[in-house]
Every structure is written in C-alpha cells, then in structure tokens.
UniProtKB/TrEMBL annotation:
This is AI-2E family transporter. It is a multi-pass membrane protein. The lineage of its organism: Bacteria, Pseudomonadati, Verrucomicrobiota, Opitutia, Puniceicoccales. The keyword Transmembrane helix applies. Keywords: Cell membrane, Membrane, Transmembrane, Transmembrane helix, Transport. It comes from the Bacteria. The keyword Metal-binding does not apply. Belongs to the autoinducer-2 exporter (AI-2E) (TC 2.A.86) family. The chain crosses the membrane at residues 18-42, 48-70, 82-108, 177-199, 245-270, 277-296, 302-325, 332-348, 354-374. Pfam families: AI-2E_transport (PF01594).
Length: 392
C-alpha cells in the first residue's frame, strides 16, 4: 500500500489541528447538553424531595465537621464511640444553652423594640418620600411631558394592584404556612438523629466505594474515589472555616454597630454574621437592612450614622478579606470572589433554594477539581497523541 494512502499522510498538520479542534468542540457541546440534562433532572429531584434532603445534607455536613472530635474523644479520652458521640452532644447542648441564656434576653428585647420602633421608621420613610416625590415628579414631567408621565403612573398603579391581587391568596394561605412551619420543625428535630447514626458509622468511604464499584475499570474507579474524597475535603474545610468566620464577623459587626450608636446592633450583627455562612449573602442583605435603619433612625440617625454604619461594614469586610479568610480558610477552594458570587446564584437556581446556595462553593470546587483531573489525565493525553500523529 503506498505511503500516501496512510492516515498520517492524508492530512496536513494544519488539517489535523483543525480536526482536533472540531472534535474537541463537538465533545464539549455533547458534554454541555449532557450536563444541562443532569442539572434539570437534579433540580426536579431536589424540588420533589427537598423536605427529605435538607435535613440529610445538614446532618451530613455536621457529621463531616464533628467526626474528628468523636475520634479524638475515642483515642485520647478512651471513650467508646457511642459515649464519645453522647459526650459531644452533651457539650454542644450545654454550650448552645449557655449562649441562648446570654443572648436570647437581649435579642428578645431588641426584637420587641424593633417592632415598637417599626411604625416610626415607616412614618419617617413615608415623610421623606412625600417630601421628595413632588420634586421628582416635577423633574420627570419636564423631561417626559404630562401625558407620558400619566401613562407611567397608571402602569405602576396597575402593576401594584395586580401584584397585591396575586399575593393575596398566598397571604391568606395560613394552612400552607403552618404545614411548612411543621415541616421545618420536623426537619430540625430529625437532624440530631441522622447525625448520631452518621457519626456512629465506622465504615471507610474509600474502601466501601472500591467494593461497590468493583465492576468499573480500576483507573476510573480510583478517579471517582479521588473526586469524592476531594469533594468531602472541600465541604469539611469550607464549612469549618466559614462557620468560624461568620461567628467572628457577627460579633465584630454587633460591637461596631453598638459603638456607632445604631439601634438593634446585636440582632443585626449576629443575623448578618449567621447569614455569612453563605459567602456574601449576609453582607448583601445586611447592607440593604442596616443602612436604611441607620439613615431613618429617630435618635441620632441621618447621613452621619449612615456613613458610620458603612464604615463598620467596610472595616469588618477588610478584616474578613485580609485577615480571617487567609488565616482560617487559606486556599481551601482557590476560587475567585467573582466566581463565588456567580456560583451561589447558579447553584441556588439549579438546586432551587437555600440548599443550593449552601452547597455552592463545595460543588463548584468539586467541578474545578474534576476539570483539572480530566484535563491532566485525558485531554492533555489526547492532545499529545494528536500532536504526535500529525508530526509522524
């Protein structure tokens, strides 16, 4: 057979490269459609079984976080595993009770004060809008004309009316609200039970997976085990660090708000800190609540308090970004802040709610690791083979 008929001689180097690029693009397209289908199925599954999944997910995360504590009590305190778990539960219950005894009275006082203060805040906002609105109308009317302005006002009024009409059934659905409350309470109550049995289990995940995936090729099986271990490591490291960071941020914000004279400082600071278990969520919600409260506060409010509250936020964010996160989290995820924000919104949408937002960072880190593994073991090898075949 002539040499010119061999596969290597039928195409030039540039043609081989073009074929490689086309094959890669086709592969990426197929993978993208496959992932979209998987995400759609996953979202449907999560929506259907959300009430079952979130207590399991919470218990699983807590089990990964506290498993080293149980093993420490086993090895150092010479407790058996069951008594180690019971000891952990007792210590956690005592610590939580102590915190509640110290914090709950203050929180209750601030919540009652906030409820009492709320009509005054609404009145001040209404007064400010009433004073500002005529000026805004005059400015807009000179730009748009009275006729267009009237149309805009009618559209806004109709939109508000429609929104209220649609929201009325939801507001009146007391039975649905009560059932959701009971479901959440049941989920919270079942978490310690799940947590106990998860901590009680002594099985090694890697060995279990090797036995369960014995039908899979050995190199693929090791890759799967590696990815699962990486995901578990990301979950444990992220949540351990993020819980500590959120607690410290909550305390710092509460102290800062107290110093500048913002009302409801403790409840605001601790709530914002708690929400920061999901990165940036607490800061976004906190800014949207605390800053208007600072501006419209009756005693000492206004622009000065607004600036001071903003400074408190900025200082705490600097401490978190340059001190807490580097020292506590290190390079656990290796994700850029912009990627983190996009991931939170993406997974919150893909998994339909808070569960997706909580798992956003570990899931994104997992897929980054999976991509690096696939690139190193498969894509780079294919590229080298194509390059070698084009040069031969």
């Amino acid at each position: 057979m002539p040499d010119n008929d061999s596969p290597q001689k039928r195409f030039t180097t540039n043609q081989w490269r073009l074929i490689g690029v086309a094959a890669a693009m086709l592969s990426l397209t197929v993978i993208a459609f496959f992932l979209l289908g998987v995400f759609n199925l996953l979202r449907t599954f999560v929506q259907t079984f959300y009430g079952v999944l979130w207590p399991l997910a919470a218990a699983g995360i807590l089990a990964l976080i506290f498993r080293p504590v149980v093993e420490f009590l086993q090895t150092r305190a010479r407790f058996n595993r069951t008594w180690s778990i019971i000891t952990l539960f007792i210590v956690a219950a005592l610590a939580l009770s102590g915190i509640l005894v110290l914090v709950i009275p203050v929180l209750v006082d601030q919540i009652l004060l906030f409820i009492e203060y709320l009509p005054d805040i609404v009145g001040r906002i209404s007064k400010s809008l009433a004073e500002t609105y005529p000026k805004v109308v005059d400015f807009i009317s000179t730009r748009l004309g009275e006729e267009n302005l009237a149309r805009i006002q009618d559209s806004v009024s109709n939109g508000i009316t429609t929104l209220l009409q649609r929201s009325e059934p939801a507001l009146n659905n007391i039975v649905g609200f009560a059932s959701r409350t009971i479901a959440i309470g049941t989920g919270l109550a079942i978490i310690p039970v799940y947590l106990f049995f998860m901590l009680e289990s002594r099985r090694n995940l890697g060995n279990d997976l090797r036995s369960q995936l014995s039908f899979v090729r050995e190199d693929w099986r090791e890759d799967i085990i590696f990815l699962i271990n990486e995901f578990i490591g990301s979950v444990v490291s992220f949540f351990r660090g993020q819980i500590v960071i959120a607690f410290i941020m909550g305390v710092l914000l509460a102290i800062g708000f107290l110093i500048v004279g913002l009302k409801f400082a403790i409840i605001l600071g601790l709530t914002i800190g708690f929400l920061n278990v999901i990165p940036y969520l607490g800061s976004i919600i906190g800014l949207s609540i605390a800053l208007p409260l600072a501006y419209f506060q009756k005693d000492g409010g206004g622009l000065n308090l607004l600036i001071l509250a903003t400074v408190v936020f900025a200082v705490v964010q600097v401490i978190e970004g340059y001190l807490l996160t580097p020292r506590i989290m290190g390079k656990t995820t290796g994700l850029h802040p912009m990627v983190i924000i996009i991931a939170i919104f993406f997974w919150g949408t893909a998994l339909d709610g808070i569960l997706g937002m909580i798992l956003a960072i570990p899931l994104t880190a997992f897929f980054v690791v999976a991509w690096r593994l696939a690139k190193r073991k498969y894509l780079d090898r294919i590229q080298k083979e194509n390059t070698a075949s084009s040069q031969s």
